[in-house]
Amino acid sequence: MAEILSLLTPKFIFLVFLGSVAGLFVGSIPGLSVSMATALLVSITYTWETTDALAAIMGVYVVGVF
To answer: What is the pLDDT of residue 32?
Structure first.
């Protein structure tokens, strides 16, 4: 339980929000797919911390598919 609560930092929530906004744009533009956006984001976030990168990728994927 403590591990889950340690993820609820302002930085984590901000990265999920930024990923969600990016996923909203990717999902609404014809010709861009969520798979392509996720693949591009993986290459950008390669040097980030694992939790930060997964937060951004999760936001893009979930909102883009929705």
So the answer is: 84
